[in-house]
Amino acid sequence: MREKEVTQAIKKGDRLAWEEDEVVYMEERVYVPNNKNLKEEILREYHDPADVGHLGQHKMQELIKRTYWWPGLKEDVKKYVQGCVKCQQNKVQHQRKVGELHPLEIPEGPWQDISIDMIGPLPSSNGMDAIVVIMDRFTKMIRLKATTTNISSEGIAKIYRDEIWKIHGVLKTILSN
Question: What distance in Å separates the CA atoms of residue 140 and residue 133, rounded to the nearest whole number?
């Protein structure tokens, strides 16, 4: 309800809204008019004091609704809590802690450490629908080999043997997902 509707409800004698000692009540709570400063003072009173303890938006809304009522109360409480710097700094994280990162060792020379990946499925060309990408981690040089998406690990080993081992020799590490 807006202010005009509250005033009309009081004039009609609606039992949900009435006026007593120059205080308007709505649904047995004090009606707060559309006054930004007054609303902010109430929000601050129910959120900022040390004895209240920076409540979250649901608990804060519940406490305010026990005494006050105004249109858009829920949205105002949500904006106030989201704008509170202390609340955002002390917010409890409900996500799992991420694992430790273990960076890869820096390669010492070319073609000692490689990574192998496959791109596909791609549009078929000459019966091939994927590409095997072999990259030297030191020089970032790549070798590309057309293949199929259903290639086996034995097929990847044959590509390694024919494209890498016979040219660059035995590797130290092979990285693949």
Answer: 11
Residue 25: closest CA among 33, 17, 35: 17
Range of the domain at 138: 113-176
User: What are the distances in angstroms from CA 149 to CA 35, 58, 164?
Assistant: 66, 52, 20
Domain membership of residue 138 (yes or no) is: yes
Whether residues 77 and 135 share a domain: the answer is no
Domain assignment present for 155: yes
Please write the tens of the pLDDT for every residue from 72-113. Answer: 889 998 888 888 888 777 777 778 888 888 888 888 889 889
Q: What is the pLDDT of residues 127-136, one digit of tens each?
A: 999 999 999 9
Residue 36, domain member (yes or no): yes
